[in-house]
């Protein structure tokens, strides 16, 4: 629930709910007749409840906000609210590469006992939550009531988060999704996290607003780069130009939390293995990170179309390339 103008003005002077009630009453703002009933019904169910501004469970970091949420409705493991968190956000209309990157980053970070926080949107958010739950913990911050499944396609994921992780919202149960509520959600995501990683974002993406909130709050901000031909990463490149960390591996992010993964050593071994494969499989050296057709690869390597097709199948089985619309492209062996 966002505070009324009068309550916001005096928020820092309030030390108890008696103060809040008095000031809220003086503001003349009416409370909906069913509001209290909805709150009470929500609290009556197991594994869910309400954390208020003066509760010991309320994250101190949220009090930094000029408009802190007075109430946080939750379902799941509320102790995660005060865990070390990294936010991963990005485009709803993400590419396969973007989703794979978000999923991989989230899994590697979560494996180090860092909670992954995101907004449960389609695309990057979904991939980040899924990767995190496979390896550790995740928090979803909603832009609607905690009992609303939005987007509907993520109903199963939201239920999984409620069972294994945590779902929170500042909006009263029953509140539908409205466009003006998502910026309010984003400020909470930014505030809870030590840092924010943007994976795939266009220049006008809402993810950049999350990054802006993070900068204003003194949080770390990083962005994953992509192809200069890909408009889906223009926002990431802009952030990097503005001084955001260029995220090239998981340890770039873990350094914000004074942690390190064994991924670097694994990557060195992977590079050594790839060099051996390249020596014995010249076709792989000609496959790029953008899809190339079998005909184009045949022309480039001098091999027959049949030989190229057969070798690509073997490379795909070994996990070196992946088939996409337009042909084959190289992928990192993770």
UniProtKB/TrEMBL annotation:
GO BP annotations listed: DNA-mediated transformation
Matching SUPFAM superfamilies, A to Z?
A: MCP/YpsA-like
Signal peptide stretch: none
Q: Quote the InterPro entries the UniProt record gives.
A: DprA, DprA_WH, DrpA_SLOG, WH-like_DNA-bd_sf
Chain ranges of the Smf/DprA SLOG domain: 51-255
All copies of the DprA winged helix domain together span 283-327
Protein family: Belongs to the DprA/Smf family.
Name of the molecule in the record: DNA-protecting protein DprA
Organism taxonomic ancestry: Bacteria, Pseudomonadati, Pseudomonadota, Gammaproteobacteria, Alteromonadales
Primary gene name: dprA
């Amino acid at each position: 629930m966002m505070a009324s103008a009068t309550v916001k003005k005096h928020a820092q002077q309030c030390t108890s709910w008696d103060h809040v009630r008095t000031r809220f009453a003086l503001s003349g703002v009416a409370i909906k007749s069913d509001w209290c009933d909805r709150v009470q019904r929500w609290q009556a169910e197991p594994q869910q409840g309400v954390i208020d501004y003066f509760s010991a469970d309320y994250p101190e970091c949220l009090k930094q906000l000029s408009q802190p949420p007075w109430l946080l409705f939750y379902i799941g493991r509320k102790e995660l609210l005060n865990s070390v968190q990294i936010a991963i956000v990005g485009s709803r209309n993400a590419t396969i590469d973007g989703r794979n990157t978000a999923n991989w980053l989230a899994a590697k970070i979560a494996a180090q006992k860092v909670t992954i926080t995101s907004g449960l949107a389609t695309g990057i958010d979904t991939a980040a939550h899924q990767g995190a739950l496979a390896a550790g913990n995740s928090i979803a911050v909603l832009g609607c009531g905690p009992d609303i499944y939005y987007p509907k396609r993520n109903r199963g994921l939201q239920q999984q988060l409620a069972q294994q992780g945590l779902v929170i919202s500042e909006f009263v149960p029953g509140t539908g999704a409205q466009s003006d509520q998502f910026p309010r959600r984003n400020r909470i995501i930014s505030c809870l996290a030590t840092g924010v990683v943007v994976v795939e974002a266009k220049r006008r993406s809402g993810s950049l607003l999350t990054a802006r909130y993070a900068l204003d709050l003194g949080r770390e901000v990083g962005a994953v780069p992509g192809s200069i031909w890909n408009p889906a990463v223009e926002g990431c490149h802009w952030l990097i130009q503005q001084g955001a960390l260029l995220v090239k591996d998981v340890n770039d992010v873990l350094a914000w939390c004074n942690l390190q993964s064994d991924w670097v050593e694994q990557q060195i071994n992977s590079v050594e293995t790839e060099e051996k494969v390249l020596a014995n499989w010249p076709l792989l050296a000609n496959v790029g990170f953008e899809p190339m057709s079998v005909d184009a690869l045949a022309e480039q390597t001098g091999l027959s179309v049949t030989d190229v097709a057969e070798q690509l199948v073997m490379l795909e089985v070994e996990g070196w390339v992946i088939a996409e619309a337009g042909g084959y492209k190289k992928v990192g062996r993770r």
